[in-house]
């Protein structure tokens, strides 16, 4: 999924999940890409994708791959793992007609920047259901131009706990891939690969600080009691975003320093 998502660059991609249900656990065994045309903000399956989906599943059964479709995945390049309004509608439709069904969102840009897979699994609540005010989920940075879409639909779905497993075949495949691509891993730098993303993060942070400053100015005119808490919340979130961006940049710099020490500095005892 991450490889497919990275191949899409700034455009969203989409695929289908194959697997099984074991008790209360949905086990994803395989995934395949769908031929869909995405944009930088949305991706939708059309008739061609549904035809491809049906043919793929039938072909898989002919080679004794008996897993059923249990979900779909798509990418959010650079803006986190959550469901937009269109995603919520798609997932609700699938849960109504193909239950059990799960939605997975993967962020390939943040995966590279953070050095770990940025992935979330979600299911929607039944229509009309009002969830209780649970404790807030783990904080994640949402770009300013996506905050409204994120907030409007946040109470219509819930996140699932995600864990990973590897089969014996998976281990062999990963070992084979490592033997082929280890040079790329050592020679690449997240600072270079994700330069546009880092610039965008800093620009977005600047916009959030300007917005918080404007709110603080208005609050000081009418009294802190009428908006002070909201302004403090904005500043707190901006501080978290700044901290996250700084840590990721430091990780990239430290990685480059370590590689420079290992490969670019020739010690006297080695040169003799």
Task: Note down, in words, how this protein is organized.
The chain has ten helices and six strands, in the order αββαβαβαβαβααααα. It has 272 residues and is an alpha+beta fold. It has a six-stranded mixed sheet with strand order 2-1-3-4-5-6. 22% of the residues are buried.
Summary?
This protein is 52% helix and 15% strand. It is of the alpha+beta class and 272 residues long.
**Unreliable segments (pLDDT under 50, ≥5 consecutive)?**
none
Number of helices in the DSSP assignment: 10
- Tally of distinct domains: 2
Radius of gyration: 22 Å
Q: Strand percentage, roughly?
A: 15-25%
Shape: globular
Which features characterize this protein?
272 residues, alpha+beta, Cytidine Deaminase, domain 2, six-stranded mixed sheet, 15% strand, globular, metal ion binding
Give a topology summary:
Elements: H1 2-7, E1 14-22, E2 25-33, H2 47-62, E3 68-75, H3 85-98, E4 102-106, H4 108-114, E5 119-124, H5 147-153, E6 157-160, H6 168-187, H7 190-193, H8 195-222, H9 228-263, H10 268-271
Parallel strand pairs: 3-4
Antiparallel strand pairs: 1-2, 1-3, 4-5, 5-6
Protein name: COP9 signalosome complex subunit 5
Subcellular location: Cytoplasm; Nucleus
GO molecular function: metal ion binding; metallopeptidase activity
């Amino acid at each position: 999924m991450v490889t497919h998502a990275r191949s899409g660059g700034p455009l969203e991609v989409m695929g289908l999940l194959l697997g099984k249900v074991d008790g209360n656990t949905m086990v994803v065994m395989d995934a395949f890409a769908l031929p869909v045309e995405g944009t930088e903000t949305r991706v939708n399956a059309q008739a061609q994708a549904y035809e491809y989906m049906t043919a793929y599943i039938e072909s898989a059964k002919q080679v004794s791959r008996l897993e059923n479709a249990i979900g779909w995945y798509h990418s959010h390049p650079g803006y986190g793992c959550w469901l937009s309004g269109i995603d919520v509608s798609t997932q609700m439709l699938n849960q109504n007609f193909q239950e059990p069904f799960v939605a997975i969102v993967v962020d390939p840009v943040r995966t590279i920047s953070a050095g770990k897979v940025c992935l979330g699994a979600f299911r929607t609540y039944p229509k009309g259901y009002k969830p209780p005010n649970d404790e807030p989920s783990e904080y994640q940075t949402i770009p300013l131009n996506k905050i409204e879409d994120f907030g409007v639909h946040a109470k219509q779905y819930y996140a699932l706990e995600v864990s990973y497993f590897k089969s014996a075949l998976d281990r062999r495949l990963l070992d084979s891939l490592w033997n082929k691509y280890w040079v790329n891993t050592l020679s690449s730098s997240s600072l270079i690969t994700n330069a546009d993303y880092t610039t965008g993060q800093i620009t977005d942070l600047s916009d959030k600080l300007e917005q918080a400053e404007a709110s603080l100015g208005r609050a000081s005119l009418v009294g802190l009691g009428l908006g002070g808490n909201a302004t403090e919340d904005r500043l707190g979130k901006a501080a978290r975003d700044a901290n996250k961006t700084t840590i990721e940049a430091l990780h990239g710099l430290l990685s480059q320093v370590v590689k420079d020490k290992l490969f670019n500095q020739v010690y006297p005892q080695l040169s003799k």
